[in-house]
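Researcher: Next sequence.
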Amino acid sequence: MTLLYTGTAVLTMDEKLQKNEHIRTITFTPPLYKQRYQFIKQLVSKYKPKKVADLGCAECRLLWMLKFCSCIEVLVGLDINEDVMKEKMHTLSPLPGDYLQPSERCLTVALYQGSIAHKDPCMLGFDMITCVEVIEHLEAKELEKFPEVVFGFMSPGRIIISTPNSEFNSFLPTVTLFRHPDHKFEWNRAQFQNWAQDAAARYDYTVEFTGLGAPPSGNDVGFCTQIGVFVRKYLKNDGPVKFEKDKEHVYKTVFKAVYPSLKDEKYLQNAVVNEVVRTAQIIVRRLLDHRKSEYKKCSESVETEPRFQPPRRCFRYLEYPPLTKADSKGMQPFINGNTVYIPLANIFSFPKVNQLCGTFETLCKLITGKVALSSDGSAVLMDAEYENEEQN
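Model: Next structure:
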């Protein structure tokens, strides 16, 4: 498996300080946290998981990025700090545009408050679980339980874990002991790899290592952020058994949003009705424009013919025969008085309507009672006078 990383390290030095204290400062472009999120997004784009969870989701930044990935149907965040999640959880809610144009996929986003060291059946069945800069915040007892809970109980298809590389800290002049006051430890490369390989071997995973934030050239300290990508070796079939054994829910639900989807008949019907009406309006306007053009031609021809001899070739544009029963196979719209009859077969031939409905029967089912139809239900009825006023 090939792992890609992005971003460059830029070494900047204050000349005066360099002479006296040899202080070196390193920055990353783009910022390292964005590189970590982009790394996860690249893996999601590559492997297309349907269910993804982020452990230690904090302000939900990664979740917000991932909600736009069309492959994801279930997106879950877990954090011990409920208040931090609540500050930004509104960014995970559907927008007005999501209701106006529902997606074809189903998407459910949920946030849970709880500890990584506890088991809850809501975390079963995931394709990918991310744990970005989190394990270094765990107490010794929590870290000890982490492999059993995440690798053993949750047992997703893939696990991505990132953590600081302590060997890089010499390039961070503001760091004394750890990079963050809440860090309980920071591992060097050997320590992280030993821990990761032990967890992988115990729970039937493979692991490969990479990182983000390269050091200045000529310095063999590894990446600023070290990453382990774990892949489960075998497909497990004991999910229902686990669920029964550990059925008690210990996490607190903080947020849940179900996005509108065309797989829900309510949203599909709204989308179909709106598209049918829009399509019918297009057809009516084209028909009326054509009739205006023909009227103009007729008027011009009348001026050149004797008054006692009406231009018969124009009669067919002035009146249309009554439409008592629209042929379901008919494709041509008709005007009868102030009413335009548009066969459903005509509307169904438009690509967007066809794509939404799939079958002609589904079209008929979804618009019945929602759109004005002819007596036999084979044509949509539109008011020609209203459409004329709209154009003028």
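Model: The first strand starts at residue 8 and ends at 12. The radius of gyration is 32 Å.
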